[in-house]
Design brief:
Oligomer: heterodimer
Structural class of chain A: mainly alpha
Largest sheet of chain B: none
Mean pLDDT of chain A: 83
Order of helices and strands of chain A: HHHHHHHHHHHH
Radius of gyration of chain A: 19 Å
Number of strands of chain A: 0
Distance between the termini of chain B: 33 Å
Largest interface: A-B, 40 and 39 residues
Number of helices of chain B: 12
Radius of gyration of chain B: 19 Å
Mean pLDDT of chain B: 83
Low-confidence stretches of chain A: none
Helix content of chain A: over 70%
Distance between the termini of chain A: 30 Å
Shape of chain B: globular
Low-confidence stretches of chain B: none
Helix content of chain B: over 70%
């Protein structure tokens, strides 16, 4: 247990030792927020009603700001790290069992998740009331939000891990990574709130794990009309996806570790 | 000839190339779908309707393609400077800028350009813009100016590597912010609009040139000026880049 804590600490230290990337992302978040604010005012100003598909202008802005920051939080460079690890450290992998590799990768990623939470998510809670003059109701839903966020992190990790194993196979990182980013961002509500999606698309989206990563935690935090039952159902949905993605990631890993062993990486 | 050579070596990494092209396709399909979905719920973005927004988006895609394809080596500039490899570009009698950037050609960027052309034609027809010599000229010159503007942004942000260490964040941020060119600059007021028009000129990548074609009556002075601004901005960025290159070879690190 202690060595895993040391791994997280090491990862966090490494991230903080090269702060430029963090600073750039932090700055980028602020610019994105400002842009989103102005864009959606420009959109809602020309609409006939204040509320469209159940969302007001402020609702949309807050939704997208949170989505962007969660998106950034979940970006733990896992795929590149895995590819690098495989290429350079395959000896270590052969010694340890495959399960350990996934765990080690997770604790490496945890440094990023923690950084994202403290340096990206928390400041957003200050930024939102500053611009929109509304505050996110802080209450028991924050606790559920935290739980939901942790579930999102797990789902995101396993999906990234699966994509990482595919990249090892195809030896193509950029293309697959960008495809995954685009698909996830779009179908999870990070680009546009899912509530705006037309009926047909919404049905498809409901069956994918991506909305569990963004739409669910954001809804839990901002949607004050949710009942306890709804929240439990949403959290349950996330748990289901955690299990599914976990199982798939294990199978993919088993398959590719054999491939690596045969081909010598 | 350079493109043909690069294509040949790329084909040997066929899977990667093919997948990257598909990746590019996905990015742009997602971009298109975002606009489409917004317009399922709303009737306009700051006064611009669906086909006008598509036009803006398409113009943007075509304008950023030359920068993405031809100046791709700019992304490696920081490493080459750091490792000292850059010096080999300085000792040849060829223009450094041309030599450096002709090393690499990002062919998958052409996918973007093709999608841009298709969307542009589609929205052009839907907006019933008359196809005259004048409007075609406006489009071509507008696109030229806009792509020079984009290349200028790339040059400026890459060339900062000549002057400061650890400048990769500037390139990353610049690349992120360029996406804001897809929207009408009128959503901003005051200082922010000024910044995005003159300091980080995304407005000249798509908004002002497009406005000139779609709605010439409401085009302001800035629309007329956009190709000149693009050309001038690129020239300044070129000078900035070359100055950095010359300084580098001077110290001979």
């Amino acid at each position: 247990m202690k060595k895993y804590r040391a791994l997280i600490k090491a990862s966090l230290m490494e991230i903080l030792a090269f702060p430029l990337s963090t600073i750039a992302t932090f700055f980028g978040n602020i610019v994105f927020f400002i842009f989103t604010y102005y864009l959606w005012h420009g959109i809602y100003n020309y609409s006939n009603s204040d509320v469209v598909s159940g969302l007001t202008c402020n609702d949309t802005i807050i939704y997208l700001a949170l989505a962007n920051v969660i998106n950034v939080l979940l970006d733990a460079s896992i795929i590149y790290h895995m590819e690098h690890d495989i290429r350079t450290g395959k000896i270590i992998i052969n010694v340890l069992r495959p399960l350990d590799f996934q765990l080690i990768t997770f604790f490496y990623a945890s440094g990023y998740y923690i950084r994202g939470f403290v340096l990206f998510l928390l400041p957003t809670f200050l930024l939102i009331p500053l611009f929109t003059k509304t505050t996110i109701l802080l209450g028991i839903n924050c606790l559920y939000f935290l739980i939901s966020l942790i579930f999102s992190i797990l789902i995101s990790f396993f999906i990234d891990f699966i994509v990482g194993t595919i990249c090892i196979f195809t030896q193509s990182t950029w293309g697959i990574n960008i495809m995954k980013q685009v698909i996830v961002s779009f179908l999870s509500g990070a680009v546009l709130p899912l509530t705006f999606f037309p009926e047909k698309l919404r049905i498809i989206v409901e069956f994918l794990p991506f909305q569990a990563m963004f739409h669910i935690p954001i809804s839990i935090l901002t949607n004050s009309s949710l009942l306890f039952d709804d929240i439990i159902k949403m959290l349950g949905c996330q748990v289901l996806w955690i299990v599914i993605t976990f199982v798939i990631s294990k199978r993919f890993w088993k398959f590719s570790s054999r491939y690596i062993a045969i081909n010598g990486g | 000839m350079i493109i043909a050579q690069d294509l040949k070596s790329k084909m040997s990494y066929r899977a990667d190339f093919f997948i990257s092209c598909i990746g590019m396709l996905f990015v742009n399909i997602s971009g298109y779908l975002s606009v489409w979905i917004i317009f399922q719920n709303f009737s306009s973005i700051d006064g611009w309707d669906y086909y006008e927004m598509l036009f803006l988006y398409a113009f943007f895609l075509i304008a950023i393609t030359p920068g993405q394809c031809l100046l791709d080596n700019n992304w490696n500039l920081k490493e080459h400077i750091y490792s000292g490899e850059f010096i080999k570009y300085c000792v040849k009698p060829i223009n450094i800028f041309f030599y450096y950037n002709s090393e690499l050609c990002d062919v998958k960027g052409i996918v973007q350009g093709i999608i841009g052309v298709i969307l542009l034609c589609y929205s052009w027809v839907k907006l019933a813009i008359p196809i005259t010599i004048l409007s075609l000229l406006k489009a071509i010159i507008g696109l030229l100016g806009a792509s020079l503007c984009m290349m200028g942004i790339l040059n400026f942000s890459a060339a900062t590597s000549f002057y400061i260490m650890k400048s990769s964040i500037i390139m990353r941020l610049a690349f992120q912010f360029k996406d804001y060119a897809k929207y009408p600059i009128t959503i901003f007021n005051g200082i922010i609009r000024f910044i995005f028009t003159f300091i980080f000129p995304v407005a000249f990548i798509s908004y002002y040139p497009s406005l000139f074609i779609i709605n010439p009556e409401s085009a302001s002075f800035l629309s007329y000026v956009s190709p000149i601004f693009g050309g001038g901005f690129f020239y300044l960025s070129y000078k900035f880049w070359m100055n950095g290159a010359k300084t580098y070879s001077g110290t001979g690190t």
